[in-house]
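Quick one: structure for this chain?
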Amino acid sequence: MALSCSSLCSQLSLIRHCRLGKNRITHGLYSPYVLCQFRLPLCRHYSSSEVRRGFARYVASKLQWANTKYEDFLKKRFPRFFLLYHTFVEGFKLLFRDAKDIRRIKGKMWSDGVKFQDLPYRDMEKLRQFRRDLIKAIPLVIISIPPFANYLVFVLMYFFPRQLLIPHFWTPSQQLEFRRVYHSLRARHHWPVLKGLEHTSQQVKNGHLQRQLKDLCAKVQSGANPKASEILAIRSLFSGPPLGIRRMSVDHMRHISPLLFLTPRLPGFLIGQRLSSHGLELLQLDRGLSRLGVHQLNDSELRQACYLRGLNADVLGVNQCREWLSQWLQVSSSLKDSEVSLLLHSIVFLSANYPSGPSRH
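Got it. Here's what it folds into:
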């Protein structure tokens, strides 16, 4: 009995102690209600998302400030290196912008079932150029894979920018210089192509077409520019033997390939396939350009279009470029897919003797 009473008293004492503690917590300074009332204004005005955004803006502003200081330092102390640095930064911006455009174009093609030849001209040209730039960049990426190879890559990029870098990373002066170099390499094959046509003309059985082909080659070799009608008059020779896209001799195809900036150092059947695919692509570009209209191109687009088709447009005026491109489209707009070989030879017919004066309007 005594044990029971003492146990009962201890339990009552414990309950009372707990109540007193609870009352102190409930009505004291650390009341949950008071804590909530104290915290609500802070939560309302300083949410975690706002804090993160504010911190991100702060970090971005500091990085931008540091980058500006760094560029100013380079510009004053190392102007040549600053030019390369600025070119690379702007080049990456252009590359990312082009990649974004390519993603949009590809998405449109996949979602809407649009084929390459049905795209607007500018989308076709951007997709074509991005493919070529990507192919050129692949070897450089492979070289940079091994550890510490990036230092070698920087050295190679500095000493061999034309061979290794895509136009995004060329300075304005380099763009003019490299286009001139590439055009001079292309122009070396004008006369071999004409000589090859003269030799092949002996295989033409139709005497009238044979004379027309010889006269056309002689006219270009004499320094004159043929008319579109004179080129189209022999179109039937370029849809089958001996001058069709798959019927030409391998040596003749090797001289045609550099006109499109394609390597001639491949087996003959591969050269024929590449000439066929690139020629059809160029023909589809011409059709897209005809739908758009030459006068819709800005100066840069106009010069690039002429350069792709065989003309050194950097030394010509805008009106000269527009006139030449209009004549080119007179030829290409009349051709069928089976006559694409004539389009490739027109690079020589129309550009070998075109004026290259320094005037630029």
